[in-house]
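Entry 14. Structure prediction run on the chain below.
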Amino acid sequence: MSYKIVRKEDAYPYEAAKHYNMLATRLHNPVDVNDGVLTVGLSHFLPGGGCEFGNNAMESVYYVISGELTLKTEDVETVLKPGDTFHCGPGTNKAIHNNGTETVKMLVVLTNPNAK
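Output returned:
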């Protein structure tokens, strides 16, 4: 298949390693299209939710849709607000945490640089 449409009711939950107090929903997987390399998800971080400091082998882009998240890397700590993005390469250490009182919605796009 060379394309895939996913309706919001067809997104499905999955467990994200080292995440807490959050619901991750998968929208797209690389196998959805010919020669695909992207994984796309929508994450909902409850107040107090986040991801432990660490890294993965994926290039990552986070886009904050609503709410605010504190982002920590090895050399910076900042607050991401609606419309802000964070793009990092494979192996980048980072942590995120929802210090607010509302659920944060964040679009997550991942690609494996070694996929091809």
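The mean pLDDT is 94.
Filed with the rest of this week's runs.
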